[in-house]
Amino acid sequence: MPSAKEAPHYHGHRDRLREKFAAVGDALPDYELLELVLFRAIPRRDVKPLAKALVARFGSFAEVLSAAPARLMEVEGVSAGVAADLKVIEAAGRRLARGAIRERDLLNSWSALHDYLRATMAFAPREEFRVLFLDKRNQLIADEVQGRGTVDHTPVYPREVARRALELSATAIILAHNHPSGDPNPSAADVAMTREIVSVLAPLKIVVHDHVILGRNGHASLKGLKLF
Question: Rounded CA gap, 12 and 52, in Å?
Fold first, then answer.
């Protein structure tokens, strides 16, 4: 063991990495940002190998945070406590992104909305179908997951979307779901389902502003693609 005067070699590395973060912020490589997160969870070990192993396993910093605790703990060196700390960081990121869209006209805040949706669902391992219910000022009333499915399908019931919109007195909605494959391009089923929801809501005077599909490789707007 090192003497009281001889700090472990990784202590100097931690100090240098903290200084680097202070200088460049989130421009750090994914594994180095992950190292910073792991410093507090694992105070007496070199965490660079673990950070690199996690990024290699899951693909990116965001995908590490989005992974289920059980999958994280499949990586040697990740305890339940470490997995919990990573999920806290994920929750904090979602909370920050949600705060950026609170009490804002979402039609004039598309960048913040996309950031929120990306943080919330782009890296989820299963498909999720989310509905953002808006008031007459296009401010968020509620953000609800209407369904979770498999890696490539989520059942959606247009009349349930309509029922919930009426309960919340929403005048408009934004639809969103993720493609775990990473490719955000809409499928024929995505387009058909969107058009069905539009047709069900139209007689109720509830507008569908957009349907956004999220993937690791970006997002697609069905309204922007003129698919409904």
Answer: 19
Side chain identity, residue 7: A
CA distance 67 to 54: 10
pTM of this structure: 0.78
In the chain, where the domains are located: 9-95, 105-221
Long-range contacts of 10-13 (CB under 8 A, 24+ apart): 10/45, 10/46, 10/47, 10/48, 13/46, 13/48
Residue 41: its H or E element = helix 30-41
Backbone angles phi, psi at 130, to 5 degrees: -120, 145
Cross-strand bridge partners of residue 65: none
Question: Which ranges of the chain have pLDDT less than 70?
Answer: 1-11, 150-154
According to DSSP, the residues that pair with 173 across neighbouring strands are 133, 208
Q: 98-111: per-residue pLDDT in tens?
A: 888 888 899 898 99
First to last CA, the chain: 67
Given the structure tokens 């690791």, which residue do they identify? 216
pLDDT for the residue 179: 94
Identity (one letter) of the amino acid at 53?
A: A
Do 115 and 102 form a contact (C-beta atoms < 8 A)?
no
At the top level of CATH, the class of 105-221 is alpha beta
Average pLDDT, the chain: 91
CB of 129 closer than 8 Å to CB of 103? no
